Queue: 4 jobs
Job 1
Amino acid sequence: MNEAIEEQNRKQREIISRLNQERINRNAQADQDLRERERLEQQILDQEKRIHEERLRSNRLDSEGRVKRDSQERENNLTRELERKKQELRNHIREVEAQKNEAEQEFYAFIGEKLK
């Protein structure tokens, strides 16, 4: 009887220890993911600003009657780069969700195993 109680207590301590470690890991990963997301979002904002500035420059050149082909090409390149950065952010968000779901599945499997 005492052995069964001791075994149950050991399993409970193990689960609590794992819960605490999972919480620490999850918080650290969430902080890292947030910093990466903020970095990507800032890159997108900066790129949108560059596109806006290029459009203003292009419009000024156009109003002065000057050739703006190079300006249009620069704007197109900036726009392509913006789309690449937006895709990178979407991919990051998807990866974070997948990692989070995988960690949850592993954790629940661990708990299920310990409760047997």
Note: The chain has a mean pLDDT of 88.
Job 2
Amino acid sequence: MNTNKLVKFYPGVDGLKTGFTREAMYCLTATAEKNGMRVITVIMGAPSPKERNAQITSMLDYAFSQYQTHKLYDRDHILADVEVNKGDKDTVPVVTSESVSILTKKGIKIDDVVERLEVNSNLHAPIKQGEVIGTLFIEREGEILSETPLIAGDDVYEASWWKLFKRVIAKFGAA
């Protein structure tokens, strides 16, 4: 039995925890999702369950009416390919480790948002898929709105001496 009545009566509410003690009174941590935006609300010290639910409803209404999320990238989105020294591959894809979104007041455009990638410029094999190799910064007017770890999209093993030798010969041949 779920004691969070908002799960049934507020569209998008999917949890989380109700509680009561004499000291803390009626408490609720509620989570809800609407239009791709997840909101977490917390109330402590409410005098009754009715007041607790009313306060949470008010917070959720405010959040969903005043704010929006802008999804920029899904998880594992390839942003670049960077060179790898002494690898069995010349490059490794740089991918997002998680989905990337920013939160704004409703109606605010994100045309002036700037993306800045900082990737280790001196990568050496071996590199494991999922290894952090950089950071994606989302900025507006010099303020950092989001920071996301960037990871290697593939494994890159150390190249054999023969492969490295052939690369050197190929570079001299191209010069």
Note: The mean pLDDT is 92.
Job 3
Amino acid sequence: MEEIDQRDGRTWGIFCHLGALSIYLGVPLGNILVPLIIWLLKKDDLPLVDEHGKQSLNFQISLMLFAVITAIVYVVVLMGLYLVTAAYFPRVALVFIPLLFAAFLIVHLVFTITAAIKAGNGEVYRYPLAIRFIK
């Protein structure tokens, strides 16, 4: 019975992490909602899912927060550049916007997939850069 719980814990732990990728399928806030739903449904039955769910949610919320802050700073900087000199505005926007999106995408994919692999091995992955909102 304990072996089945371990296997179930690993499987649902993987889903906690990979569920965050649902945002790329067009699910609004899927990166937070899917892990949250899995965590809420399974955390009391499977201790491993409790830990994986917390880790996934903390990272997804942190990354979303970082993206929003970055976007706000970016807009303020672009507005400042535009007010100072409109000549640089299009070039700066065309270069940095795709780079910022690519950086967040790569970080999200690499860390999420790494966490899912660790969950499959029964290990808990501590996401770098994650703020511990849920302890």
Note: DSSP finds four helices and no strands in the chain.
Job 4
Amino acid sequence: MKIKDIRASVHTTTIEVPLLTERVPGYGREEQREFVFCEVETDDGVTGVALTGHFLSRAVVVALEQHFLPVVVDMDPRELEAIHQRVWRSLNPRAMTGVVSSALSLLDIALWDIKGKAAGRSVASLLGGARTDVPVYVTFGFPQYDRETLTAAAQLQLDQGFTALKLVVAVSALALVIFIVVVLGGVSVLAGFSLLRLITVLRKELAVVLGTSSSEAVLPQLMERLEQVGCRRSVVGLVAPTGFSFNLDGVAVVIPICVVFIGQVYGIPLTFGDQLGLFLIFLVLSKGTAGISGSAFITLANTVAATSLVPIAGLALVLSVDRFLSLIRALTNVLGNAVATVVIARWEPGGLDRELAARTIGWSRPKNTVGEK
């Protein structure tokens, strides 16, 4: 089976915009949309068809009929990888415009259609089921390197990638453990109570956070538990909810690590000034972040896009492990807010029931009583 001809044409259709209930000046309830229809004909009489959007429609038609056809004519339409290799190597100088990419997408769909028809199966069945290998189309490096070099580089990146993703979770977890032990532990000692006993008291709430990766999910239970350890209701009612918006320690610590990780993946060196600036930015932006699962990733995406220090495409790497990062962020957020509430209650006259706190979280009057009245 060989490719004999490629035909492409531009078509226009009218679509209704359902969200417009009345005519808007300069617009109507109907819009004209263009699309490109492509047919790839083989010498066996099997024709593959494809449809794509309206990006530079007429340029895509010209690319298919005048530039693609001479390159792929007489090739086996089922050899998708070979066709991609030849197209990119032959038309690479024009690939960056997007026209070649759109045309190649059309050709690819049509070739899959031919492949399915030749096998007597739907494309869905050809692509369905469990897969151990996923085809990836990439244009980087084609003009400079041969296929063997690119294949070796891709394998190296694959081998390193999983380790790198494990490391970003491990480093983030280690940073939060250090933060909890050194910062929260130090604050607890100065305030005169045991952080370990507080964690023991909050074990049920922390277990819920571990299952939901959301700090907001345990706010009511946390407030009730803090009252049970001796904090006055009025203090808990002010400090705990406020802390869930303005005291997200886990977000402030982990998110800068993710940016540095993306920079390392792309080989972009970040100076100490860059890292310090990012830390300060995230320290501010963490205020007001919602305490729901995944909200910190939105903050990360907005800041990466605004600062332009690292490629925004690198967010996909962090997204793949964000579920695990979200867990440790949420645990730290809850624990940090619990510590803050106890400390504020201790500073507030009558805000902490000393006897109850002594029995539950091991409170004792510290040597340094700064803030006591």
Note: The beta strands are 3-16, 30-42, 47-52.
